[in-house]
Design a protein that fits this description.
The complex is a heterodimer of chains A (293) and B (345). With 293 residues, chain A is mainly alpha-helical. Chain A has a domain of 199 residues. In chain A, 72% of the residues lie in helices and 0% in strands. Chain A is globular, with a radius of gyration of 19 Å. The N and C termini of chain A lie far apart (55 Å). Chain B has 345 residues and is mainly alpha-helical. Chain B has a domain of 222 residues. Chain B is built from 14 helices and 4 strands. In chain B, the strands form 2 sheets. Chain B has a two-stranded antiparallel sheet. A two-stranded antiparallel sheet of chain B has the order 2-3. In chain B, a hairpin with a 2-residue loop joins strand 2 and strand 3. In chain B, helix 2 runs antiparallel to helix 10, helix 4 packs antiparallel against helix 10 and helix 12 packs across helix 14. The longest helix of chain B is centred in the C-terminal third of the chain and has 28 residues. Classes of the chains: A mainly alpha (293), B mainly alpha (345). Chains A and B meet through helix 5, helix 8, helix 10 and helix 12 of A and helix 5, helix 9, helix 11 and helix 13 of B.
Chain lengths: 293, 345
């Protein structure tokens, strides 16, 4: 019995890196959705773009830090472009329209990435990623450790940012009531742009981690769909929900692979999503909306 | 600036139209019908095959229209019903050697049943959640088609035997064309009837404002299930025709992109109108064939282009989908009203 418990615990631990990835992706969905009420289905492709830009920078023999910075800058620029010239005209439209638009942008980006970088598998060189961490009690590579640390830092950073900074407060105000925020003098266009920037930065870094944890190919945008399952579990408008949902899905995947088999991995997210939607459609932490006429 | 409050139940486009009524459009419809019936006598095989595909897509996009156009429910998994219809046809005709004429009746009913089952969780959901569930449904169906290989033949797919009617074996493009044309006309008639019934008014009420509809005694549960039922019956029929026209089904025939293509047909043509849907279905069905031709032509000058065909295709798809939503609210059919507005000034 103790052996069983130990196995489960160790699976939970080894699922932490992938859980962090889902958590970060789910966060970038929530950040945009809460502020702009647009659900950005092309977030997975934006993440992939970050990974590919970093790959090219590394190919050009740039130091790794510079590669990450250039990936952040370019991904943010691309994101801002999409926000400003495409999605801004869909703010306030029905959510189904923005879903269709971002779905279209997603396949557009996937095609462009395919044309620029090709569809073959690539290896993104990250220094020290595969080395075992020289820390007591932690049996993990530096790469996996850094994903977990980055996700914790991102969560804490966002928490502090939303609580104490002016812009963070403006974002929260916009999330709770756009018209009210506008009347109070919040420049909502800045809020929208900044939400996209935050999401792009988080996604780009996540993309680099994903590219190294699995392999760099156009298929990695699929991670975003599993992150959506995490979102459904946590509730679409809750940051706390996104974090917990991400880790839970990661752990469920690890357990399913161990107890059922590797094939079941892809289905875990969907099964969880179906069950949650049947029982608690607004998620664990989402707000149950009461419709008023 | 108008209010930014997002009003998630508002309509995308308000152009509910029924069958053509004026004299000129009646004449146009008759001319088009005669042309369609005579087409196999003059057109070559390839063109007839393409028109058959258009007719099949017209059927399934009219199904999706019950959800997106009328009831305002976004389904990203309509292709899954087409896939189910096609595979059921293949399995029944091939493995159980059932008669095609029985199968073509059973299959839409069976996919309709699946549609109702999908609708059950979907009833509590709308907008984002519904889109995610239907997207997941398509992915699960695709995974199922590939992994249940002792039933579906896995990646190889399965063959669909040619149907026979008495001593006539259906095996030419012309045969399948007339079969699809007959079904498409029946479907037009059925849709036109629905568009004049209380069902249509119920659908529109659900789309316009769910709460007001409920307050007026319209059961959301009933009308949403009905919309899903109609959509999946149409999808299943289209899948059945697709399977028998191709003579072979594989999982590759029904990628995620198929569901997106159906959405493009609606956004390009215009939701809610039969003419718009027909235009959209024709353009989007022909788009990949046109692109293939264009890329091959370009390939004679710049050979490397051909390698990128798959990527060029989805870039164009993305541009068409985003562009139609940005610049053509109401689709191409919606332009008609605009032009008339300008002329009236």
């Amino acid at each position: 019995m103790l052996g069983e418990l130990q196995i489960v615990l160790s699976i939970c631990l080894t699922s932490l890196p992938i859980g962090s990835v889902y958590c970060l992706l789910a966060l970038s969905f929530v950040l945009i959705y809460r502020a702009t009420k647009i659900f950005n289905l092309c977030q997975g492709e934006i993440m992939m773009l970050g990974a590919y830009i970093a790959y090219t920078a590394v190919q050009y023999k740039l130091p790794f830090v510079l590669a990450v910075v250039s990936s952040l800058v370019l991904t943010t620029a691309a994101s801002l472009f999409l926000e400003k010239y495409v999605l801004r005209s869909f703010v306030g439209k029905p959510i189904s329209v923005s879903i269709m638009v971002t779905l279209g942008l997603g396949i557009l980006l996937r095609g462009l990435i395919g044309i620029v970088w090709g569809v073959d598998q690539k290896v993104l060189e990250v220094p020290m990623f595969e080395e075992m961490a020289a820390l007591p009690l932690v049996h993990m590579t530096y790469g996996k450790l850094s994903v977990i640390i980055f996700s914790i830092l991102a969560i804490l950073g966002l928490e502090v940012f939303f609580k104490y900074s002016r812009l963070g407060m403006a974002i929260r105000a916009t999330a709770s009531n756009v018209n009210g925020a506008m009347l109070m003098g919040v420049n909502i266009w800045h809020v929208f742009s900044f939400s996209w920037v935050l999401a792009a930065v988080i996604s780009a870094v996540t993309g680099i981690f994903v590219a190294r944890l699995s392999i760099l190919e156009p298929g990695i945008s699929q991670y975003a769909f599993i992150a959506i399952a995490a979102l459904v579990l946590g509730g679409f408008d809750s940051i706390k929900g996104a974090i917990i949902g991400g880790f839970i899905i990661g752990i469920f995947e690890g357990l399913a692979v161990f107890y059922i088999g590797g094939q079941s991995k892809h289905l875990v997210g969907f099964v969880v999503m179906f069950i949650v939607l049947m029982i608690r459609p607004y998620g664990l932490f989402g707000i149950k909306k009461v419709a008023r006429v | 600036m108008a209010s930014l409050e997002s009003d998630s139940d508002r309509v995308v486009v308000k152009t509910p139209t029924s069958a053509p009524t004026s004299a000129t459009s009646a004449v146009l419809a008759v001319v088009a019908l005669i042309a369609l019936f005579l087409a196999p006598l003059v057109g070559n095989k390839y063109i007839i095959f393409l028109i058959t595909l258009i007719l099949i897509n017209v059927i399934s996009v009219q199904g999706l229209n019950f959800l997106i156009g009328y009831t305002g429910q976004l389904s990203l998994g309509h292709g899954a019903f087409v896939a189910l219809g096609a595979y059921l046809t293949a399995i029944l005709c091939n493995t159980y050697s059932a008669s095609f004429w029985v199968v073509i009746v059973i299959v839409p009913l069976a996919t309709g049943l699946v549609g109702v089952l999908v609708a059950l969780p979907a009833l509590r959901l709308k907008g984002l959640y519904l889109a995610m569930v239907t997207l997941a449904f398509h992915m699960v169906v695709s995974l199922g088609l590939m992994s249940l290989d002792d039933i579906t033949g896995g990646y190889q797919g399965m063959a669909v035997p040619n149907p026979r009617l008495g001593s006539v074996v259906f095996n030419t493009e012309g045969h399948f064309y007339y079969l699809a044309l007959l079904c498409a006309l029946l479907i037009y008639a059925a849709s036109a009837n629905v568009a004049r019934s209380k069902f249509y008014r119920g659908f529109i009420a659900v789309k316009e404002k769910e709460i007001s509809a409920q307050a007026m005694g319209i059961s959301l549960w009933y009308y949403k299930t009905l919309a899903f039922l109609f959509a999946s019956i149409y999808g299943g029929l289209a899948g059945c025709l697709f399977a028998v026209t191709m003579g072979h089904v594989t999982p590759n025939h029904f990628p995620m992109m198929m569901s997106i293509e159906f959405i493009m047909m609606i956004t390009v043509g215009g939701p809610g109108s039969f003419v718009g849907l027909t235009i959209g279905a024709s353009l989007i069905t022909l788009l990949p064939y046109f692109l293939l031709y264009a890329v091959q032509e370009m390939g004679t000058v710049v050979p490397s282009v051909v390698v990128y065909f798959a990527d060029i295709k989805i870039v164009i798809y993305g541009l068409v989908l985003v562009g139609s939503l940005m610049f053509l609210p109401g689709g191409l059919y919606g332009l008609k009203a605009k032009v008339q507005g300008w002329l009236a000034k």
